[in-house]
């Protein structure tokens, strides 16, 4: 006669794969609970679907699916800025252990008994147009068509949604804080000032801004007499930037285009700014990227590349969660890799600096803005999308603080035929 099988509770499942004490109080839809009762934060597995997401995609992706869909809720933190959870999540990962063979058998049987091993539908927010098109048509990675779908998947939510947390600057890249007390808008303006000065631009010069976003750098340069062209693959960004240029009366000097940087016909630019585009290029394409931009500069022209980097030079994706939900096809490497490819393309690298703490502050302020505008964000984009952005930005803030990722600006010059730098000074000419 077969023994009577008593399925494990959700709490017992957690205990089977962790070493006590865990940093959370965990409760579940079946009424079970585990973890310290006085824990600062608690996690609630609210549904069988949430448990299924966690069981069928262990790790970041499963936890994210459960959290975004509401199958996993965190108590003690606002979903617009769940920053403090990440210290506890790191501690939770440290508590994970491999169950003994008998425990594993009981765990799998219990999950199967509950129906938690049944694959759940992918959350709608993950089913981007890019992901469907990739599956259906099999687009080549980093082809022009797939890059456009990838960028659209992230940026074409709605301009109104981004305005809620980016603020008046509508700039979705690391700001540069003149002081820790500066506002986000002051810091973003200061970032454009820094890049403008590093590129040593002046009235009458020409600038190409690749990956221009909503056109902040283009308008900054145009207001100072520089003829500036910006390109983006996002239709929403293009339309917003075009209208903003018209509203400020900058049409004679500023232009944004919805096009791939590889299709820009003009050349002979005095400066090129690339602010937050390299993350989308793919390390295997760095040579073509820097080579094509080197060709578009006049001799003596300068390029500044501003991008997220790793603390090491081992190129890799940022993980399943980021690839599925945030930056499809995104890939990072270290600042050394960036500088190597710039040098190989013909640039003399003049200066590099790490602004990771500035990005930490930037992300913190974006999260504060999202938290303050939470109801409007949910109304505009839906709660899953709002929860997704809160989770992503808070996790990124934590990552920059703890040196998981960095932010580097690298400045290079296209030398003249005789190997000189033209009229560039020998020493740093910009204000910090």
Automatic annotation (TrEMBL):
Alphabetized InterPro entries for the sequence: CFA/CMAS, CMAS, SAM-dependent_MTases_sf
Keywords of the record: Lipid metabolism, Methyltransferase, S-adenosyl-L-methionine, Transferase
GO biological process: lipid biosynthetic process; methylation
Gene Ontology MF, one: methyltransferase activity
EC number annotated for this UniProt entry: 2.1.1.-
One Pfam short name: CMAS
Gene3D superfamilies: Vaccinia Virus protein VP39
Family, per entry: Belongs to the CFA/CMAS family.
Name of the protein: Mycolic acid methyltransferase MmaA1
Gene: mmaA1
